[in-house]
């Protein structure tokens, strides 16, 4: 039975990933900062008690990441999904009103954490059958696609994680590990807002279809949820 580890699972896309993979019989390791208050995630655990385990994890805390890896040292992780991410409200301020402390925090979560997760769980992933890492990024991290400017903090953090995941694809190829980037679309979540275009179910279903079909030859690619490749 395949095992998946997902970060940022208390709501939105992460929660939907947990639901769909548990429903399909995977062993799901669901991580979030505060499991005690993650009501929807806990309800899923009651629904799928044999398939979901919840662990507390703040991805900005590298010590916590290392501790979790130690706890799960004997696991094999077929698929790691780096889903946890932030879009700081202060990013709407634009040029001339940048919240630099928020920028630093955003890089910790959106850019540094996925690489730290890869480093911490490399053994568990290497020992698995599927050997896949997927990082949830954004089309807003595409330099070629930037036609509107602004959103300096979020855009730069996602452009940076795109480079990280691309380097992982090169550095880990010899181990047979696939590293891909996934743009979930404009999704109706707390981050996406009510005006978004698609549901979490549509987004995750599309991304799962990609993850099911990719091979090592696709490592380093930047996919939209509908399967289209996004320019860097």
Automatic annotation (TrEMBL):
Q: Which family does it belong to?
A: Belongs to the short-chain dehydrogenases/reductases (SDR) family.
InterPro entries under this entry?
A: NAD(P)-bd_dom_sf, SDR_enzymes, SDR_fam
Protein name, entry field: NAD(P)-dependent dehydrogenase, short-chain alcohol dehydrogenase family
Q: Which GO terms describe its molecular function?
A: oxidoreductase activity, acting on the CH-OH group of donors, NAD or NADP as acceptor
Domain of life the protein comes from = Bacteria
Q: What Gene3D superfamilies would the database entry show?
A: NAD(P)-binding Rossmann-like Domain (3.40.50.720)
Sorted alphabetically, which PANTHER family does this protein's record hold?
SHORT CHAIN DEHYDROGENASE, SHORT-CHAIN DEHYDROGENASE/REDUCTASE SDR
């Amino acid at each position: 039975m395949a095992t998946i580890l997902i970060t940022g699972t208390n709501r939105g896309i992460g929660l939907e990933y947990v639901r769909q993979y548990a429903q399909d019989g995977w062993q799901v390791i669901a991580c979030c900062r505060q499991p005690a208050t993650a009501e929807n995630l806990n309800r899923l655990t009651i629904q799928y008690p044999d398939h979901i385990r919840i662990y507390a994890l703040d991805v900005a805390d590298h010590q916590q990441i290392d501790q979790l890896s130690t706890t799960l040292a004997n696991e094999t992780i077929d698929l790691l999904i780096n889903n946890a991410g932030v879009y700081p409200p202060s990013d709407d301020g634009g040029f001339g009103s940048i919240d630099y402390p928020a920028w630093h925090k955003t890089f910790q979560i959106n850019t540094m954490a996925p690489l730290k997760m890869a480093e911490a769980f490399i053994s568990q992933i290497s020992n698995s059958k599927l050997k896949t890492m997927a990082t949830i990024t954004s089309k807003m991290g595409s330099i070629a696609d930037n036609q509107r400017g602004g959103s300096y903090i979020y855009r730069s953090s996602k452009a940076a994680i795109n480079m990280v995941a691309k380097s992982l694809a090169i550095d880990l190829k010899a181990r047979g590990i696939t590293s891909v980037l996934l743009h979930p679309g404009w999704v109706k979540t707390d981050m996406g807002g009510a005006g978004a275009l698609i549901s979490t179910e549509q987004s995750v279903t599309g991304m799962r279809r990609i993850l099911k079909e990719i091979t090592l030859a696709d490592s380093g690619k930047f996919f939209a949820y509908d399967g289209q490749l996004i320019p860097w």
